[in-house]
Design brief:
The chain is mainly beta. It has helices spanning 2-24, 174-177, 276-279; strands spanning 36-38, 43-47, 51-56, 60-65, 71-76, 79-84, 88-92, 97-102, 108-111, 118-123, 129-134, 141-149, 152-154, 162-164, 169-173, 183-191, 195-200, 208-209, 215-223, 229-236, 242-249, 254-256, 263-265, 269-274, 284-301, 308-310, 316-323, 326-332, 338-344, 346-352, 356-362, 368-386, 389-394, 396-397, 407-409. The strands form seven sheets. Strands 19, 20, 21, 22, 23, 24, 25 and 26 form an eight-stranded antiparallel sheet that branches. Strands 27, 28, 29, 30, 31, 32, 33 and 34 form an eight-stranded antiparallel sheet that branches. The N and C termini lie far apart (59 Å). InterPro entries: DUF5719. Pfam families: DUF5719.
Length: 415
């Protein structure tokens, strides 16, 4: 009996081992691949100024008034829509770049921007400006303003809890809140979101200053050659001092500006530094590096007419805009040369050295689409100058970077 039990146990062990070996030789059944879908790319941007809309979008787009909700235009591809009453919202089924050109007695260009919950607007002359706050959404927005002047935070009555109803725009005199400049206006929406800008008060030099976001680095392109008056404006919204390094990306190479050597910005304050002499009349891009988040802008003024305020541009391989021609400037912020193909009625290729800016003169036109396709990230703008003001139109990103997340897999088991 004992020998029988041993034999049964040994047989069972051999059977289990054989089953284990057999299972190890089996290949797992491959599950069918989950279906892949492209994530939709859409744009919803708010234009505050009245004038001629210049829009570049590879797909279809519409524009509607924020107050009445009526459709102002619908189109496919780049458009030039004259004499639209702002503010209005542009919706596109692709990435889009939009702005509004106003001729008037003084020329201005106002880039359109998505509504946001926060941002900072830097103004050199607050006594000549007022704020536009527009709520283009369906719910009420409540906005708090923090004003940061040359001597620190400015205590201003009426800067908190500003309620803006859906589809409504409010104007607030910046001269009352902060009469001395420069000043940075940081806004935060405790409810909803808003589109916001600083514009001139009636009877003063026309200008449009859009918001930017505080960051440790800003790339600002489009300083035209021969600019006689260029100011760098920096706002530090933090409670610690910010040490700032400013680099010009000029015609042949990059270099640190003498005017901004050892630049340090006190906590909760703003500074303006003239930099035209340091640029030596070259077409330039400006890179601002800081030890903590700051807001930065460059104000370019001609001998007459309205000034242009330039803010951060995102570097990309595919850029475009609807422009009026003029001087196309392409800046390469990288460390390797970049080849850029420019399409503006005709096609040409430009080589942009690392850390430098090249200029190509485009034919003047009432409206034309300009695209730049490069083998490395660049920033670009198109500038025209007349006695009534300098217009600088930034080109924006119109395609995702290679390898950027743009698709998703559907999982039928998720609920």
């Amino acid at each position: 009996m004992r020998h029988l039990r041993i034999l049964v146990s040994a047989t069972a062990f051999l059977v289990i081992a054989a089953v284990a070996v057999g299972l190890s030789l089996l290949s797992p059944v491959r599950l069918p691949a989950s279906p892949t879908v492209e994530l939709p790319r859409t744009t919803r941007t708010t234009c505050l100024q009245s004038g001629d809309a210049l829009v570049y979008a590879p797909g279809s787009l519409t524009a509607r008034s924020t107050e009445a909700g009526e459709e102002l235009f619908a189109s496919t591809g780049p458009i030039f829509a004259p004499e639209l009453e702002g503010p209005f919202v542009i919706r596109a089924d692709s990435l889009a770049v939009a702005g509004v050109y106003a001729a008037g007695p003084a020329r201005t260009f106002a880039p359109c921007a998505p509504a946001a919950t926060s941002g900072t607007i830097v103004v050199t002359e607050p006594g000549d400006a007022e704020l536009i706050i527009t709520n283009s959404d369906a719910n009420e927005a409540i906005v708090d303003l923090t004003l940061l002047g040359p001597d620190g935070e400015v205590a201003a009555v009426g800067a908190r809890g500003i309620a803006v109803a859906p589809g409504v725009s409010r104007r607030i005199a910046l001269s009352v809140l902060a009469p001395e400049g420069p000043v940075g206006v940081s806004f935060t929406a405790s409810e909803g979101r808003v589109a916001m800008a600083a514009v001139n008060v009636e009877g003063r030099a026309a200008r449009y200053v859009g918001p930017t976001r505080p960051a440790v680095q800003h790339l600002i392109g489009g300083v035209p050659p021969g600019a006689a008056d260029v100011q760098l404006v920096i706002t530090n919204p933090r409670e610690e001092r910010a040490d700032v390094t400013v680099t010009a990306l000029g015609a042949t190479s990059s270099y640190e500006l003498a005017a901004t050597a050892d630049l340090s910005v006190e906590p909760m304050s703003s500074v303006a530094v003239p930099i035209a002499d340091s640029l030596g009349g070259e077409a330039s891009g400006i890179r601002v590096d800081s030890t903590s988040d700051v807001a930065a802008a460059v104000v370019v003024s001609g001998p007459t007419g309205s000034p242009a305020t330039l803010t951060h541009s995102a570097a990309a391989r595919e850029l475009a805009a609807a422009t009026m021609g003029g001087a196309l400037q392409i800046t390469n912020p990288g460390t390797d040369p970049v080849t850029a193909k420019v399409t503006a009625g005709e096609e040409l290729e430009l080589t942009v050295p690392p850390g430098a800016t090249v200029v190509h003169v485009l034919p003047l036109a009432q409206f034309q689409a300009v695209t730049v396709t490069a083998d490395g990230p660049v920033i670009a703008s198109a500038a025209t100058s007349e006695a009534t003001g300098t217009i600088i139109v930034p080109l924006g990103k119109v395609a995702d970077e290679p390898g950027a997340p743009g698709s998703a897999e559907l999982d039928a088991h998720l609920r």
